[in-house]
Design brief:
Blueprint: E1 17-26, H1 33-43, H2 54-80, H3 87-103, E2 108-115, H4 120-129, E3 132-139, H5 146-161, E4 168-171, H6 179-194, E5 202-208, H7 212-216, H8 221-239, E6 244-250, H9 263-272, E7 277-281, H10 290-306, E8 311-314, H11 322-335
Parallel strand pairs: 1-2, 1-3, 3-4, 5-6, 5-7, 7-8
Helix pairs in contact: 1-2, 3-11, 6-8, 6-11, 9-10
The chain binds the ligand C=CC1=C(C)c2cc3[nH]c(cc4nc(cc5[nH]c(cc1n2)c(C)c5CCC(=O)O)C(CCC(=O)O)=C4C)c(C)c3C=C and fe (ii) ion (2 copies).
One fe (ii) ion binds next to loops.
């Protein structure tokens, strides 16, 4: 008997469930030097993150960085730690709960961190145990970089290698120029700016930095950031024609040249050149984290005010708010097309 003998309306029978794994970078389990050391040791040993041969890099990492940085970073984490733990972990968990509420019985949603916990391998195992035969792995990085997106996929690949029976797998592509992402960012930033007690002259769009050589080696990250910023800027030109928009790169690490201009330098130069009122946003982060809450909202503010600025506001990421979950839902639903 061939398929043509089946009634035309014969339903497609889906055996097994659909799973979604939201992934973000990772964070220490506690804001103490020991936990931060464990986190940084794993993160900075990833060859996608530090592209220096291990023979050269590991002695520097073990002998210098991991003996000095954890204490300093732990102090920074302590300033932003919440009752629910690290902001990045708490917000990612809330995003997974928000997406689960939207998808209902259509899919099982879990979340994982590329480094530390919850580990990607464990969460993928949990989805299998829950009966998922199709899984979407969704790294929540709007802009692709080898250090973030590809590294998350490496962890997925490691998990694949250790399993006999695998589900069908899909991954979420970068969404740096997705109209839904740009519209969500513009609307949410405009809403936050409208609620400020002052009118900013400048909106600084600060992206996480990368070593400049990654750009010359073909990483699209820099181009993706620039495009996101241009598209957000085009929308603000329509709604806020007097608002000046500048793009910068934050969180410089190590001795190599990083993408420029640096956020801290721009804040100081703007203040010295007479800019008084600034709002800063981080459209490359889907969730607030140490880099936005401490580096921008605390140190950025101090730098700007000390250099002569009068008003400073750090705007929130999309996080697990209505606009954030709307965006994640639309990105995920598109990737699940044909599965749910
Ligand atoms: C959003 C994209 C990110 C890119 C690109 C990225 C590249 C990158 N980062 C480092 C070094 C560090 N990053 C740290 C924290 C951190 N980085 C991202 C995101 C990107 N990083 C996030 C979301 C966070 C916050 C984590 C949290 O717990 O809240 C840190 C640790 C903190 C510290 O000690 O300062 C380091 C170190 C490199 C070297 C790099 C590119 C090669
Ligand atoms: Fe980083
Ligand atoms: Fe930082």
């Amino acid at each position: 008997m061939t398929a043509s003998h089946l009634p035309a309306e014969h339903p497609v029978v889906r055996t097994g469930k659909v799973g979604v794994l939201l992934v973000n970078l990772g964070t220490p389990d506690a804001p103490d030097a020991k936990s931060v050391k464990r986190y940084l040791g794993e993160f900075l040993s990833d060859k996608r993150v530090v592209e220096i041969p291990s023979l050269v890099w590991q002695p520097i990492l073990r002998g210098f960085i991991l003996t000095t940085r954890p204490k300093k970073s732990a102090h920074a984490y302590q300033q932003v730690w919440s009752d629910e733990g690290s902001p990045l972990a708490a917000i990612t968990a809330a995003q997974a709960r928000g997406l689960q509420a939207r998808l209902g019985d259509a899919a099982i949603v879990r979340h994982a961190m590329r480094y530390q916990s919850p580990a990607m391998g464990k969460e993928l195992d949990a989805l299998l145990e829950q009966g998922c035969e199709r899984i979407l792995v969704a790294p929540l990085y709007p802009q692709y970089s080898a250090a973030t997106t590809a590294s998350a996929l490496d962890a997925m690949a490691d998990w694949i290698k250790g399993r006999r029976r695998l589900p069908a797998l899909r991954t979420l592509p970068p969404y740096h120029d997705d109209p839904a992402a740009i519209a969500a960012l513009h609307a949410d930033l405009a809403r936050q700016i409208g609620a400020l007690a002052f009118a900013p002259e400048l909106l600084l769009l600060s992206f996480h930095g990368m070593p400049e050589r990654t750009l010359h080696r073909g990483d699209p990250y820099h181009c993706h950031c620039r495009k996101t910023a241009r598209l957000i800027g085009e929308r603000f030109a329509q709604t806020h024609p007097d608002l000046r928009i500048v793009t910068s790169f934050q969180s410089r690490f190590g001795r190599a040249k990083w993408l420029e201009p640096a956020t801290d330098t721009v804040l100081v130069e703007e203040a010295r050149n007479g800019t008084k009122r600034v709002a800063i946003a981080a459209p490359g982060f889907s969730a607030d984290c140490l880099e936005t809450l401490e580096e921008l909202a605390i140190r950025g503010r101090d730098d700007f005010l000390a250099a002569g600025g009068s008003h400073f506001a750090a705007l929130s990421c999309l996080n697990a708010g209505e606009a954030g979950i709307d965006l994640i839902e639309s990105l995920v639903r598109r990737e699940l097309s044909g599965w749910i």
